[in-house]
Amino acid sequence: MKFLINGCILFFLISGLNGQNIDSLKINLKNYSSHLKDIESDTTESWILLQLAQGTTNRESLFYYELLKKLSEKKLKQLPEKSKLIEFHEKRLALFYNEAGLLYRESGQVLKALDCFQKGIVLDEKISSSELSGANYNNIALVYHDIGEDEKAAEYFEKGLFIALKMKDTVGMTYGMINLGFAYYSANKLSKAYQKFKTCYYLAKIKNNKIMEASALERMGRVNAKQGDYKRALHQYQVSLDISEKINYLQGKVSNLFCIGDCYRLKKNYKEALKFATKSFLLNKELGSFEFTRANAYILKEINKNLGNYNEALTMFKLYRQLLDSTNNRSNREAARKNEIKFTSEKEAIILSHEAERLKQE
After folding, report:
1. Does residue 241 contact residue 253 with C-beta atoms inside 8 Å?
2. Rounded CA separation 307/313 (Å)
3. Whole-number CA gyration radius for the chain
4. Domain range for residue 293?
5. What is the distance between the alpha carbons of residues 73 and 61, in angstroms, rounded to a whole number?
6. Integer Cα distance of 186 and 314 in angstroms
7. pLDDT (tens digit per residue) in 210-254
8. Predicted TM-score of the model (pTM)
9. Which of 15, 133, 268, 307 has the most CB atoms lying inside 10 A of its own CB?
């Protein structure tokens, strides 16, 4: 009988989403029968939306995450106070804030991303999810970096690292080290940055985390390039690129191709620079990273200008200015500061609420 009811829900859900993307829905429902145990402890609708959100492209993914958020918010309003499903839907909502925030940042919508991550931390505090809380602190730091607030970025990276250390989470520590190193790098504290990247590299090697191993090597290369040691930088980029290609890590490939291109630009080898930067720019169309589109646009503008390709240089200059103006501007920084005040107030309210509950129980 339970299967028949779930089957009916599926039929109506498929009918309702037909106009949005029925093909994606069919792909994600292929293994429906093999997930019956998961579905029995979940609501069918929520499970399907999560599969769609995690299995589609960025724009579609955001659409389904938004539907998942609305569903969980609706359920939380309807459920009785002591319902066991409250925790389930709060966790779904916390997941939404983390995942949607990442997608908003990736598409350059930094203020929406910041809002998601801050709301996520407030909810993480409520449901005592240290893991998601640590991730959201790191994500907030990345947004602050995007809008040019590097001191604020370092502050949040340190908070994320503190949570990882407290949990004895080696993976979290690895990410915390590379992120804090990134903040030091942006602040031109290169010696501190290199030490953090190096620590991250060894932690990744111990855990056989190839993605972080490649990422740490690339960051170490950036420090060497900034210090003018192009030979060592190019070696580290190439090793990182080889790892990324071996494990098919798309972001690693895009990033290292960009770094190699930029390194050759700094060496004034513009033909080699053009080759690698163009590869990165084209491969990034698959990744869809706002950050790498902007970075590649800048160096391709410089490279083409030095090669005498002025039309191409102008095209890239216009793209770069357009992308730069959309993130690193005064209105975004002011809005971010307002969000920070609101976020701090909401977080404090949660802490006070927990303390009041504890005193009541005592």
Report:
1. yes
2. 9
3. 23
4. 209-326
5. 18
6. 27
7. 999 999 999 999 999 999 999 999 999 999 999 999 999 999 999
8. 0.59
9. 133
State the CATH number of the domain containing residue 230: 1.25.40.10
Highest mean pLDDT among 14-18, 130-134, 157-161, 260-264: 260-264
Per-residue pLDDT at 312: 92
What integer is the mean pLDDT of 47-64?
77
Closest CA to 263 of 292, 237, 301: 237
Confidence (pLDDT) at 258 = 97
Please indicate, yes or no, if residue 288 is contained in any of the structural domains.
Answer: yes
Residue 197, pLDDT score: 95
More confident residue, 59 or 195: 195
How many residues appear in the chain? 362
Q: Is-contact 132 158, C-beta < 8 A? A: no
Residue 158: count of CB within 10 angstroms of its CB: 15
Count of structural domains within the chain: 1
**Tokens (6 digits) for 336:** 């971010």
Residues 306 and 309: their CA atoms lie apart, in Å, by 8
